[in-house]
Amino acid sequence: MLGPYATEEAVAAYNHEHGTDRPAVVQYVDWLRGIVRGDLGNSLAPPEPPVWDVIEPALVNSMKLAVFAFLIVVPFGILGGVFAGLRVGRPTDRGITVVGLSLAVVPEFVTGLVLILVFSIWLGWLPVTAQWEPGAGALTQVRHLALPAMALAIVLFGYIARITRAGVVEALDADYTRTAYLKGLPRNTVISRHVLRNALMPTIAVIATQVGYLVGGLVAIEYLFNYQGLGLMVLQAAQQKDFTLLTAGVLVVGVVYLVVTLIADIAFALLNPRIRFQAAE
Amino acid sequence: MSSTEPGATALHVADLDVSYRVRGKDRQVLRGVTLEVARGESYGLVGESGCGKSTAALAIVRYLPRNGAVSAGSISVAGRDVLDLRGQKLREYRARTVSMVYQNPGAALNPSIRVGSQVAEAFTVLGVPGGDATDRARDALDRVQIADPGSVMRRYPHQLSGGMQQRALIAMALAKNPELLILDEPTTGLDATVEAEVLDLVSQLQAELHTSVLFISHNLGVISKMCSRVGVLYAGRLVEEGPVGTILRDPRHPYTVGLLRCIPRGGVRKDHGRLDTIPGFLPSLGAEITGCVFADRCALADDRCRAEEPRLDKITPVHASRCWHHDRAATLPRAEIADLELPAVDRAGAPLVELAQLSKVFKQRGHEVHALTEVSAAIWPGETLGLVGESGSGKTTLARTLLGIVPPTAGTALLEGGELPTRYQKRSREELRALQIVFQNPDSALNRRHSVRRILLRSLKKLAGVGGSVAETRMHDLVERVRLTERTLTQKPVQLSGGLKQRVAIARAFAGDPKLVVCDEPTSALDVSVQAAILNLLVELQAEKRVAYLFISHDLGVVRYISDRIAVLYLGRLQELGPADVVFEGPHHPYTEALLSAVPTVDGGGRDRIRLDGDIPSAASPPSGCVFHTRCPRKLGAVCEETEPPLVEVEAGHHMRCHIPLEELRRLQRAESQPMAPTA
Amino acid sequence: MTSVAAVSERSEARVARRERLRLLLRSPSFLIGAGVLLFWLTCALLGSRITPYDPIFDQTSDLSQRPSTEHWFGTDRLGRDVFSRVLAGSRDILLIAPAATLLATIFGTTLGLITGYFRGIADDTISRVIDAVLAIPLIVLAVTVVTSVGSRSAWAVTVVIAIVFSPIIARTVRAAVLGEAQLDYVEAARLRGERSHYVMFAEVLPNVMPPILVEATIRLGYAIFAVATLTFIGFGLQPPSPDWAVQISDNWQFLAEQWWTVLFPAIAIASLVVAVNLVSDSVQQVLER
């Protein structure tokens, strides 16, 4: 905070003022006390604003990006997975699975760079950075978010498609599907009424686990597109060794993950009578 | 076969070949199967696992797995050719003409759709409008004797018991009043009393609706109860066919003869009239067979049998056998030597194991589940105590408590007078080696990464405390005892058949010369012919080593065959305990009575079955008074609801927990039915 | 009769194994993946011996040149030949990623075995910690750990990735062990007086190896992913390493002016992760058959 050339006295004074000369345990307990009171502390970086003031806008930005990416990837992922699952073992299936999984392991920043190169630099269709001018309209914001959201969608597609596919394959093999076919129901009814309902349950659970990654895990994407979200905030805090902000950021990311997982569990239970009634009985 | 005019037969299968494509090769599963089910007839198809009976059913409903295909032959249902149905025609056929009910009803219902709408679907597919379909569904559930169909319709499948689920599926299957109903092991996996109810229901509905039924089962007892004609399938070939009575009384194919001799039945006990076995193995899937499919395992086989396949020849107009020597089939030499000398059990001496007032309460989501309540019993050296009861009766918990896997909540177990530590971790090597177990499922009982040799040597080291050449010698000795070959030693469990795996598991249990071996349904995962061999092996080992068995089984025939004494558990309480013959011959506890009459047997017959109403109550909230009063057909009245009867010795060595005096039970049971044993 | 059947079953097993290998060698995705992987491994082993120019120090050529016949992939701002740097760029990552995966597998497996086998308090405690760790996105966690450790050496990156991956592997192993511990052979072992460590390592471990191996190959792909990402945001490998992500990190701000200094290493990274993924996926396919 004081730069590499600060005098020893200055460092000592700084440390004393911020309490960083106390034993680590004491500092930690103190910090925990603050958390319990809902006080995340102040950032160590000048002008030392309360941490929440830094986190809040970043969290809002991250959520915008996450929701946008979700809106793109969830329908495509489920569609791709269902499509592959219904054609299990055939070339369409292998194609979707292999391409999806391959895209999922390519680091987001690589995908992002290629997208920037093609859509911003060569074609000039979309802006290079994701950060819009203050007060920009919704459409402008969408234009700015398009590339990073696309990069995320590409990474997540394979993942969601794979889980969906596995669910579909399992449901197709299930005895209850046989019962449905043997009732004489048409294939479309069997699939929409009997197969998909059960097949999509694992997908819901998995989508929830990805939210944690989408809100806060996008360090590389936010860095690449210079987007002031939680990921970039955490990165900057780490670069500046602003531990208060870093820990608070990590904490918020964890809490978001837990909340979303909880929501997903509830949604899962509502869809799955087996769990719903177990709780009630 | 003269009655093949269209419309006269419900099902006509001719020269049906079905094969599965496995690892790039077509493997034939059904070989030229021809059979016919007349209108209103109930035809049984019987065979052991891998004989192709389910494949036949799936071919008829046109639902073979993706790698399976009909390669020759024809199938027609109600005079209509089934094999070239496509699209809408196929759906119509499934919706209106044919129905199928199969094993494991829990999986056959969609877990996330209410039972009512699933049943209603069977009507909407026939064009019944929504509201009417719901009403019809309610009627259908009513017809399968589901009490309060309205509330059942609103429930999800997992909220119903197995018996209820299967009834709902039967209701669905009969919605269309089908030309042909296929039942593929519909009661396998259900408890005996529930099975009996479901079978009764099917018989009754069939009589009402004149439905033609193809009944598939591995259980000859069930087939003989349910069907008028039966076909015996072996390795994809129909080897014998005829009226059920004829087949059971006068089988004319060596396979049928052998199969019937494998089944523990009337008068056969471990010490006299032992079970016969069928040597060898089923041909591997899709094996090329010239000659008779059974020749390899047949003691009557000669060169002609191996070279030339016999036709399905008529012996009488209704009875046919695919055997060159059908006239001599009954003379098939026995594979097992007959009688065996078993040492007498001396019950005057000290018991080997005593269970004193054992109770076990599990805590489950805040509820207390009383798995065992004050169970006391003794086992003497060299005897077999059979443990009988339906699911939830606590029989497995009892065994696990004795072994120290589950510590009891109260009570103790004694071994030769000394108190056993409640947990196996605290037990000495002597105590561990004295009590061993043979599990139900040999696949899970053996470590699939270890060779048989490693499995046995390790057990010898830990239980007998021997290593090196001594262990080697002992291992070879063990292998010989359980009739395995030396070659098995280098193999891993996957390379062995179910029966061989179970032999390895038995050898492992005997590595430390145990005093008592818990046999937890050791044959229920096996085919009848393999079961017979395993039972014989257990008996031989008992004769030789004077080992005692605690033998758990739901199969009363098996229990009677092997047990000296029998204990009957219901909801964790001992209801009856006594010598095997006494328990089977009666007078018996009303629950035992119901259990015995529920079991369909090969030589069963027109006895009136004692019906039990409803399902087994939950052990989490057992009924007050006598726990059996909610289902007891002989309930006296308030006393049964209020006071739990004590377990008293009603006659020498025969204990019973019932308010009805013994003489009264004797009178009641004699009045209603002749000898009550499943052996008739 | 026993022996005849046994022999045929035995050779059946051998045939099945050979069949699997044959399927693998006939699978185009496996062949492509293995080919690419082998190519990068060769480059990593031979290093500057096969590159046309020195990948690190050669600055004699012209600066920031477009791709040409002389410099196939152009040159960067310091005049280094991008083609040579791409060829040399696989070395560090092919060392760090497998090492980190191996460490994580060993640590995660041990953790998973213990939690899955013992259940009880140890399981509850460790599983809660694992859940908490998994609630934090991977890269955020890695950044936090790197910052706390304070070192950005290759060794530190390896350990960080290993630490971050261990809970994921532990969870997979735990699930497999939980299923396995239900099986009767485990009970049989306990009933003959085996100690816990014997049951865990000699009885259970061999049976959960297949899912562990599958998980490890998947993790290898993600280790490459993670190392590259960390490097890109400045928390991983540092210059002068010719690592692909280092090259991208150095040059991406100038993407508009000299795309070749970014695009080629980017394609290289993509090709490597996709290759690893293709191989692990086809192996899984064949194993599941």
Could you tell me the number of beta strands of chain C? 0
Number of domains of chain C: 1
Mean model confidence by pLDDT of chain A = 81
Number of strands of chain A: 0
* The CATH superfamily title of chain A: MetI-like
What series of H and E elements makes up the topology of chain A? HHHHHHHHHHHHH
Q: Give the name of the CATH superfamily of chain C.
A: MetI-like
The major sheet of chain C is characterized as: none
Radius of gyration of chain A: 24 Å
Q: How many helical elements of chain A?
A: 13
The helix content of chain C, as a percent range, equals over 70%
Overall shape of chain C: globular
- What kind of assembly state do the chains in view correspond to? heterotrimer
Beginning-to-end CA distance, first to last residue of chain A = 58 Å
Rg value of chain C:
23 Å
Which architecture of chain C does the CATH hierarchy give at level 2? Orthogonal Bundle
CATH topology of chain C: MetI-like fold
Name the descriptors:
heterotrimer, A: 281 residues, mainly alpha, MetI-like fold, 76% helix, B: 680 residues, alpha/beta, Rossmann fold, eight-stranded mixed beta sheet, 24 helices, 22% strand, globular, disordered N terminus, disordered C terminus
Itemize the secondary structure elements and their pairings.
The complex is a heterotrimer of chains A (281), B (680) and C (289).
Chain A: H1 8-18, H2 24-36, H3 51-86, H4 91-105, H5 108-122, H6 138-173, H7 175-182, H8 187-199, H9 201-214, H10 219-224, H11 230-239, H12 243-271, H13 273-280
Chain B: E1 9-22, E2 25-38, E3 42-46, H1 53-60, E4 68-77, E5 80-81, H2 87-96, E6 98-102, H3 105-108, H4 115-124, H5 130-143, H6 149-153, H7 162-174, E7 180-184, H8 192-209, E8 212-217, H9 220-226, E9 229-234, E10 237-243, H10 244-249, H11 254-262, H12 303-307, E11 313-316, E12 319-321, E13 353-364, E14 367-379, E15 384-388, H13 395-403, E16 410-415, E17 418-419, H14 429-434, E18 435-438, H15 442-445, H16 452-464, H17 468-481, H18 498-509, E19 516-520, H19 528-545, E20 548-552, H20 556-562, E21 565-570, E22 573-579, H21 580-585, H22 590-598, H23 638-642, E23 648-651, E24 654-656, H24 662-672
Parallel strand pairs in B: 3-8, 3-9, 6-7, 7-8, 15-20, 15-21, 18-19, 19-20
Antiparallel strand pairs in B: 1-2, 1-4, 4-5, 9-10, 10-12, 11-12, 13-14, 13-16, 16-17, 21-22, 22-24, 23-24
Chain C: H1 2-26, H2 28-46, H3 82-88, H4 91-118, H5 120-134, H6 138-149, H7 154-181, H8 184-191, H9 196-232, H10 244-251, H11 260-288
